Amino acid sequence: MQALRQFSIPINGLKNGVHNFEFHIGKTFFSEFVESPLNDGNLISSLLLEKKSDHITLDFFTKGFINTECDRCTALIDLPIESEFDFIVKYSESPREEGEIIYILPDTHVFNVASLIYEQIILSIPIIKVFNCQDEVPKPCNEEVLSILTEETENSTNPIGDVLKNLKFDKNN
To answer: pTM for this structure?
Structure first.
């Protein structure tokens, strides 16, 4: 958990007003989360924190690349990720989370935002992870896998499609 210490914000010592923070996210960050689907990345998360007497607003903007496997060819790629998210932190005698509202004890000295950033990075990963490698030189693609996929596509027939091609329609009805 030492690697996540840099994500701790001393909210007790902050004056009311707007404060900016910037966090660099890489391999050591992802290694702190057990069973993380990500192992590496290069991202920057900017936090605009506004402290008021009764609550704190957290506005995050995270941008960069995660290192993951391409769903098309299985090659390791640097997939671009970008996300924005907001949270409100309120003071309460019972700490809890309700959607985008986080309740903390009034005497909380430090608030760690690492898990918030991690969750939003995970949620911003597209369902299908493919990289537009058309402009890349050299292409990061696994050509062996792509050739197998191309070969299977060329040699396969679709029996349903073949039946549909032979249907004749009466244009008068």
So the answer is: 0.77
